[in-house]
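Sequence of N-acetyltransferase (Apilactobacillus xinyiensis).
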Amino acid sequence: MDFTYEPGTFYKKIDNQLVAEVTFTVDDGIVSINHTLVNDAYRGQGIAKQLMLKVVQYAQDNHFKILPVCSYAIKFFEHTDKYNDLLK
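Predicted 3D structure, token representation.
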């Protein structure tokens, strides 16, 4: 799925309806993931995971660390050690 980037967020809209978004702040080289949302009609399709992978790529591209704050981000990083080098 392709996501739109605006500073502090990646999101997807279909027919002007928000399908999914992840919001974050960047401060002193640390990306704090503070909110992840997937519209109920689109849950169970792995979209939240795709959003996390977009943030991971963003952090890698910019040489940032990641601080998972929202509950989904925390669970995502607890279930994989693949990105431990990015965690703050």
